[in-house]
Amino acid sequence: MKAVPAWLVFTVLRVLMFVVPFVVLSLLGIEGWLAALLAAVIGLCLSYIFLRARRETVARGLYEVRHRDKEPVHPDAESEDAAVDRAAASQTNVGRTPPAP
């Protein structure tokens, strides 16, 4: 049997953390828009507290998929490498005498 993807479990739990408080607040007779607002805040707090490990697992999986084929390169790393190469080349040319005409 194939394991359930981490993102699917995380999504289902997040939806449940909204739906359950929404249904409870609706059964208590709170207006729909206010019940939805309170359920969203409650769901956000619950998921922040209880779903940290699952959230990090999903984030790690997304990062691995995004960066599967290449190692991270910072935008200025190439320009820094070129500057170091130019500096090294200019230092090797300092001690040489120019060719005779």
Would you mind describing this structure in some detail?
- The protein is mainly α and 101 residues long.
- It has a domain of 67 residues.
- It is 73% helix and 0% strand.
- It contains four helices and no strands.
- α1 packs across α3.
- The chain is elongated and about 100 Å long.
- Keywords: Membrane, Transmembrane, Transmembrane helix.
- InterPro entries: DUF4229 (IPR025323).
- This is DUF4229 domain-containing protein.
- It comes from Cryobacterium zongtaii.
Top keywords for this entry?
4 helices, 101 residues, transmembrane helix, membrane, DUF4229, mainly alpha, 0% strand
List the helices and strands and how they pair.
Elements lengths: L5 H22 L4 H19 L1 H15 L10 H18 L7
Briefly summarize what is shown.
The protein is mainly alpha-helical and about 100 residues long. It is built from 4 helices and no strands.
Structural class: mainly alpha
Discrete helix count = 4
Number of strands: 0
The separation of the N and C termini measures 80 Å
The main β sheet shows up as:
none
Instruction: Please write the string of helix (H) and strand (E) elements.
Output: HHHH
Low-confidence stretches: none
Radius of gyration: 28 Å
The amount of helix comes to over 70%
- The geometry reads as elongated
Mean of pLDDT: 85
Share of residues in strands? under 5%
InterPro entries: DUF4229 (IPR025323)
Pfam families: DUF4229
Protein name: DUF4229 domain-containing protein
Keywords: Membrane, Transmembrane, Transmembrane helix
